[in-house]
Write a structure and sequence with these properties.
This protein is mostly beta strands. It is 0% helix and 45% strand.
């Protein structure tokens, strides 16, 4: 397969996350190894440890900030996650309910973050592409 040909497996993968009108408004889609019970994000076609089958699973939308950094690069989206253009936070979040660790944009200023902080997933409007609004997954500090 050359780099110009589309990957035939790409269309088989489910979305990584979706935004809707439910109470939380966000569903993080993952996969779970049928043999090990381990969860993965983004969703996989096969278990990366055993090569066995996986089943779709919805992951927790809350977690704990495991690590974070502040990026001093221009934000490419329409509105910066911290409200200004002085950089933005990125972090590794351990999802609750024994979920996987994932990387995401952090909402707020650098003073909002510390390792161990409880976080909640949220929708971050990113750009309008071909007239359709696009959003990405982000996390904000939880009240608790």
């Amino acid at each position: 397969m050359t780099s110009s040909e589309p990957n035939p497996n790409r269309s088989k993968l489910p979305e990584n996350y979706s935004f809707d009108d439910s109470a939380s408004g966000i569903t993080i889609h993952g996969s779970q190894s049928d043999e090990l019970g381990t969860t993965y994000w983004p969703p996989r076609l096969r278990c990366p440890q055993t090569g066995g089958s996986v089943s779709p699973v919805d992951l927790a939308t809350t977690g704990i900030l495991w690590s974070w950094s502040y990026v001093h690069l221009p934000w490419m989206g329409d509105v910066a996650p911290n409200g200004d253009d002085e950089g933005y936070g990125v972090g590794m979040v351990d999802l609750d309910d024994d979920g996987p660790r994932l990387a995401a944009v952090l909402m707020g200023s650098r003073d909002d973050w510390h390792i161990g902080a409880p976080v909640t997933a949220r929708e971050l409007p990113y750009k309008t592409i071909d007239g359709k609004p696009q959003s990405i997954l982000a996390f904000e500090r939880s009240a608790s």
